[in-house]
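Aim 2, interim progress. The first record below pairs a target sequence with its structure tokens.
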Amino acid sequence: MEKRLFTSECVTCGHPDKVADSISDAILDACLAQDPGSRVACETMVTTDFCVICGEITTKAVVDYAAVAREVIRKIGYTREGEGFCADSVEILCKIHTQSADIALGTNDSVGGAGDQGMMFGGACTQTPELMPLPIALSRALSNRLTEAKKEVDFIRPDGKTQVSVEFDEKGNVLGIDTVVVSVMHSAEISLEELRAYIKKEIIAPVLAKYGFALENVSHIHINPTGNFVIGGPNGDTGLTGRKIIVDTYGGYFSHGGGAFSGKDPTKGDRSAAYMARYMAKNLVAAGLASQVQVQLAYAIGVAEPVSLRVDSYGTGKISDEEMTALLRKTCDMTPAGIIRKLQLRNPIYGKTALEGHFGVDDQPWEQTDLAEELKKLTKV
């Protein structure tokens, strides 16, 4: 039997790019909390002792952007003076202006058009309970467990990365876990041997067990393979909003349209249509119509209806891909306004996406499977 490996990576909320994402999304939430009609396209850059917030924001909300950023940095855990990036001392520069009037012409509520052209993808499969691909689900769970551990012990620091390689057979069935990689920022006081023992026992083992795998059955485990990781976060590497788009979605297992999510209000299809594509794909799988589905949507700027919709079930469908496409057209409003209404996207719900992940988090509206029963009834499968 031929074995095939697929690898996905994830990062913790203290990774420089995720710090930037978190600041952008916190500013979005702050605007939406006061003015649900806010138009936000917020970009952030973080580096040693410095943060730049820029972009286009049109809102009635009164928001202290720098204060929001400092609170995010503090919540993530960068609170130690003298380590190159600290919530209380970081210099913050804000350069915000309003949305382009040309873009607003086609996207205001009376027109309801898409905020930009582009294609967006969503996927789902039966590899995990959350209907996510196993490689990214494991990588995300490891990253989130590292974030939890930072609150439990004093030697774990906020920055970290994880990576998992899963063995599949030629039919796409999971055979096992080949490789787990964990790199985490830590204090200078702990030895590498102590750190590796802790990560293996308290991070990797419980996460694998949650998904039904045993530590001793993993072929390769690498923990901080380069050695010490004391200098990290924005002090070790510059971070930018939107630079972890594969981490944010499916770890490369499904396609990506190229647009980032964080800092964008729901009139931007890069975000809202990607959430809708996930919702549709997940409900098709939850309805038992296929074991693996990818949905693609595409839009033209200023035009409400998508210019295309495509379903690909990779040969796993109980009905044809064309029939699934017709079902989605019948049951889902895919206009920007329809997506915003269905998924309640004008609420301040975005900060946790940068911290915990965009997909596979049960309490987000695009993760609900309320459409599955209707799809079953319409197909009688």
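The second target in this work package is listed in the same format:
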Amino acid sequence: MKFIGITGGVGAGKSKILGYIKQHYLCEIYLADEVAHLVKQPGTECYKALLALLGPDVAAEDGQIDRQVMADRIFADPALLDKVNEIIHPAVRLFLLEKLEYAKKAGNVELFFVEAALLIETGYRSMVDEMWYVYAEEKIRRKRLSMFRGYSEEKISRIMSHQLSEERFRENCDFVIDNSGSFQESRRQIDRKLEAFTWQE
């Protein structure tokens, strides 16, 4: 079984690429943002550590951590961001490694994917067998974000300014999917790369 990380800038189309892979290959796919939400559920070690760091009132009435309150605390004290990441990122990695081991033992998938915009920055390069970069030209990414998410040009520029450059993505990745053109061409790139694995209708 191959463990693959998928990363890329905002608007590159990572979700659509993963949707195709999920439909046609024997795989498990985890989105790091969703896992981060799971590991800080009430009762977990991560949850307890976050309450100890940010204060018990960061929990909403339903017991869940209030994302807006957490964001406000971090905005008021930027040094807290590193401390929050030091709690959440190891918990996410542990969750994924446990799922990976379970998948290996079960033996019913050939590919195990984790997706996040920050995989390179958060040290996944040393964990995965391969790192894939979903690339799309900036003007196309901007058009997608404006059209499908309703983002303003200012918001798009702000998000992009905080992400890795194309050069950094490319130098840290083993395989590049150019998702600038038709999705049919993107599918051909994926199928060529995964031709050694089972394809299903």
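The mean pLDDT is 95. This observation will shape the mutagenesis plan for the next reporting period.
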